[in-house]
Amino acid sequence: MRSLVAAAVGLAAALALVLTLTAIGAPAGETSPEPLLTTVPGPKK
Q: Do you know which InterPro entries this protein is assigned to (predicted)?
């Protein structure tokens, strides 16, 4: 029974954290215009 209560408290805390972060919103900022390299550049031809 204690484990059930602990799981419920943990779930409630996690849900509260998610809702708080959602209410605050994403931080203001801009994305970089430069594309990100996803592979290692090969030898130049």
A: SPW_0924-like
pLDDT of residue 35: 76
CA distance 16 to 22: 10
Nearest-angstrom CA–CA distance, 29 and 21: 17
**Structure tokens of 24?**
């605050």
Q: What is the mean pLDDT of residues 24-45?
A: 75
Phi/psi at 44 (nearest 5 deg)? -75, 140
Name the pTM for this structure: 0.54
User: CA angle, 30 as apex, 19 and 38 as ends, to 5°?
Assistant: 95
CA dist 8 and 24 (Å) reads 24
